[in-house]
Structure formats: C-alpha cells, structure tokens
Write a structure and sequence with these properties.
- The structure is a single chain.
- By secondary structure, the protein is mainly alpha-helical.
- It has a single domain, classed as Alternative oxidase (Ferritin, Up-down Bundle).
- It is about 80% helix and about 0% strand.
- Helix 6 packs antiparallel against helix 7.
- It is globular.
- The termini are close together.
C-alpha cells in the first residue's frame, strides 16, 4: 500500500473507514503485529501511566492528553530526520534523502492532523470537565516531553523501534475512541461540533459522534502507517 502523503488522500481513506467492513479489512492484517521488546515495554508503561492519571475508560480529558502526546511523536520524527541529514550528510545519497524526506513529509501531515484533534477536543473538554492544572496541563506536558525524547532517541538508534512505539500508542488510541463512540453513541449524536478550526482544517462532521468516529479512523491510519514505514 502506498503511504499517505497528502491531506486529500488521508480524508478519502478516513471516509472509507466509516464502513465497518472496510475498517475491518484495513485493520485486521496488522492487529496481530508484535512490537519488539523495547517499544513494547515503553508502550505498556505509557498506557499504564495514562490510565493511572485519567482512568481506564475513555473521556474528553483523557483524549486531550492523548492527542497532545501523539503530536509530540510525529514532531520527534521530523526532528530526528533533520538530525540524520545534518549528522550523516545523507544529502549525497539521493535514495536515503528521499526516504528520510518522505518520513518528514508524513510526519508534518500527521502533526497537522493531531493538532486538529487536540484543538477541537480541548474546546469540547472545557464544556464537559472541570479539570485542575495537574491533569489538564502539567501531566500532558510531562508525558509529551518524555514521549518526544524517547521516540527521538529510538529513531536515531533504530527507527523500527520508534515506529513500533507509535504503533502501540496509536492502537491504544484507536481502541479508546472506538469504545467511546459505541458506549456513548446516542448522546454524542445529540451534541453539535462548532469549531472554526475544524472548518479550517476541512472536516465537517454533523455531530460529536461523527467527529470522534473520524478521529478513531485517523488513529488506525496512523497505526498502520507506522508499520508500513518500517519496510521503506
């Protein structure tokens, strides 16, 4: 499968995955992928810490933290690619330069996508929760800081580990959103989404259920793309 390199491709695939049969066909081949020991330990630790702070069940506040952390991972890829260009002078190796530039291009696309998630969800979370400084601001920042540097260093040492760590995190995010839209389907369909940023981004859900379903689809796309990057 060709890696997604543009927002038009991403949105087309996202819409396609609204169909349950298409989602299953897209998701199932990589459901049994097993990450290496290092990213597996880091991934489980991150999920465990998140569950301690925000609880096991999905919530607006938990989703906000998830998206802040997720964005950091793609930023780390872009930073690591720049470092590799600078340190190893891959400019003289055109094939390697193309490979790294493709990774950086996808990382920018994914960053924009995750930014949309966190901006819109932050507004929704304000209406649903009264959160203190610790859970709303400090904890997500600390998680993102650690996640950024872990992903960055793993990419420099062995890119596969960084991709596999992202696979685990995005798989967890997918499961959380999928549980959320099924558990709260009726109430979410009654709640509107009024977001200038979402309109600017180019996505137009009719209600929160459609919005969160689209994010769920984004996460499984990010999950699968992480493993597809390994073979490039």
């Amino acid at each position: 499968m060709e890696l997604i390199r543009g927002n038009t491709e991403l949105e087309a695939l996202n819409s396609k995955l609204n169909d349950d049969a298409e989602l299953l066909a897209y998701k199932k081949p990589l459901d049994t992928y097993r990450s290496s020991l290092v990213p597996r330990l880091l991934g489980h630790t991150l999920v465990w810490c998140g569950n301690v702070v925000y609880g096991k069940r999905p919530s607006y506040l938990k989703f906000r933290a998830v998206e802040i952390i997720a964005r950091a991972h793609y930023h780390s890829w872009a930073s690591a690619v720049y470092t590799l260009h600078f340190m190893t002078l891959f400019y003289s190796n055109e094939q390697k330069a193309i490979q790294l530039s493709n990774t950086a291009k996808y990382a920018r696309l994914a960053q924009d996508n995750e930014t949309m998630h966190v901006v819109v969800i932050s507004q929704l979370a304000k209406r649903e929760h009264k959160a203190g400084f610790l859970r709303n601001t400090l904890a997500p920042m600390l998680f993102a800081f650690v996640y950024f540097w872990a992903s960055y260093l793993l990419y420099l040492i062995k890119p596969r580990y960084s991709y596999e760590l992202n696979y685990m995190f995005e798989n967890h995010a997918f499961e959380q959103y999928n549980e959320f839209i099924h558990r709260h389907e009726e109430s979410l369909k009654k709640k509107p989404v009024d977001s200038p940023f979402l309109v600017w981004y180019g996505r137009h859900p009719k209600n929160q259920w459609e919005f969160f379903r689209s994010i769920r689809n984004d996460e499984i796309i990010h999950r699968n793309t992480s493993i597809e990057e390994i073979g490039k």
